[in-house]
Write the structure tokens for this entry.
Amino acid sequence: MALNCVVCVKQVPDTKRITGEAMTEEGTVNRRALPAIFNPEDLNALETALTLRAEHGGTVTVVTMGLPSACEVLRDALVRGADRAILITDRRAAASDTLATSYILSCAVKKLEADIVLCGRQAIDGDTAQVGPQLAEKLSLPVISYVEELVGISDGKITAKRNVGNGWEVVTCTLPALLTVMETANTPRPPAARRVMKFKKARAKSEVEAMAADLLEGDYENYTAELKATEVEKYCANLADRGLLIEQWDLDDLEADLTWCGRSGSPTKVHRIQSVVLTGGEYREFAATDDGIAELIGELIHDHTVG
Amino acid sequence: MIEVNRQGEVWIFAEQEDGKLSDVPLELMSKGRELADKLSVPLAAVLLAADGGDMPAALIAQGADKVYVVIDERLGHYQAAGYGHVLCSLIEQHTPQIFLYGATPIGRDLAPTVASAMKCGLTADCTDLQIGDHKPAGSDEVHKNLLLQIRPAFGGNIIATIVNFDRWPQMATVREGVMPLGEPDTARSGEIVECAANLDGVQLPLEIIESHRREKAVNLKASRIIVAGGAGVGSKDNFQLIWDLAHCLGAAVGGSRAAIDLGFVDHDHQIGQTGTTVRPALYIACGISGAVQHAAGMSEAGKILAINTDADAPIMGLAHFGIVGDLNVVIPKMIKIIRSGAGVEQAAQQVADA
């Protein structure tokens, strides 16, 4: 049975590389000062889909929601082997929390007729792990979260080993289903050189628009808006012919109810943001000598911390 | 979604497996008590199981005024569909204003399922909870006595406080180990409310083929002293130094994420944002630089001793005591001095001097 896999991915700031420069004085994070990367566990979700396609046939569609710059992760997914890439971008989706995000993604997945929906267990910017289970609830799909190992698929049933904190369990359910995948599940394959060359030219329509002046021939500056639009369409059609068009959907394409998108669809609001200031109590340094260490141990025994 | 209400109870999901309560709901009870008292509403635990056993009594002893008990064979083993269905009907029936879950893999699977079905807000991995007022930017309306949901974000580099003022209940998952476990009081009395599961006709899609639970190899949360090693320890063989120092202090052994990733010590020993959160009386950090992710799991220790070759390592900013030096030299010296009792003499001398 050929499987249609939909993989939800996210472009995230590389929070592991946050340095002082990336923090503003108000304690907020200057996202622009951080490299944007493919959320690590989403790569494991993609790898799971690619492995399933190799075994069972079918397709791998990658979906992301974000700014047009998030096309970077979609190109990466194409290079790694995805068949189709979709960018959901819409100003009205800005400020979506996990509830609104899962609603918008559910509208997209509904249009894709997925047998399996795969997400990374969590993204490293929010670390919430919420969008996967919320998306499953919205799609009325069974969810297997925290997948440590995909055991396999047979007779229309998927079996996976999931982490439950103080142990693991092996669970099975009938497809379609949604899985959230942990980094331990597999090792994402490196990009294939041949595909790198091909897919580095893949673009979404908004990217084409942004770079139209460079891409299009002729006296672009003097084009009418109508002519510009026609040229953009033509360029996109050409990309599509070559399998290089990243599809772009907005909330209207998704027929999403705007009440449940963006700010109005997001019950959680930020009350305050503070930077983490690491401060200890009074600091005393002891010499790394016998005397210094004996003094320290004496101190700890004296105040009953030790002994 | 339920309407904002001021009489709603504070609820805690009493996660259990095989009739044994997890640590985190018990830890959450003292914080829940504080929040409920501030709001002058009851604190309730919600227990779903195949058999209640003595769990309701344990929850009352830990501070619950009420325990909603739902007993059904089909609830013996967790799965999102069944548990989510039961919790949503309880929420609609009893309209709690706050609902807290442990940020365990099960809590982090269940809470989003409930939040999605109820269309309410949810904040993950809180490290603190308070009651306070919120005034939205550009609005004159002040929302009083909201749950302030405090959590690290961006890999622990910032602390965000989240509120949810319109679509209730206000829900949050809370990290294990961040709330101190209160003393149980078996003399407390509380009400046990038995509720029906009403699971007939509800599809439970997951079939559990195999389940394996184990106790962690080390109980870091209960240890008074922890000796922890980081990448600076250098090798798995050299990590023996950490074990040796721990043995002579009667301490537990911890490790930073780097030490775990490098295979120096098993994952059960990991301390930090993705590991265990600890609050021992003494924390000895050896060769640990002190990244915020690590600090998130140990900064509440009573006393922190850092041993590091780098005087400028972030851990020194957290530490109460520091030794700048090579741990390969310092730790053997410490062991020798502790074993010889020289420190005891030093302490006696200090008492005499004072």
Remarks:
- Chain B touches chain A through 99 residues (CB under 8 Å).
- Residues 175 and 187 of chain B are 28 Å apart (CA to CA).
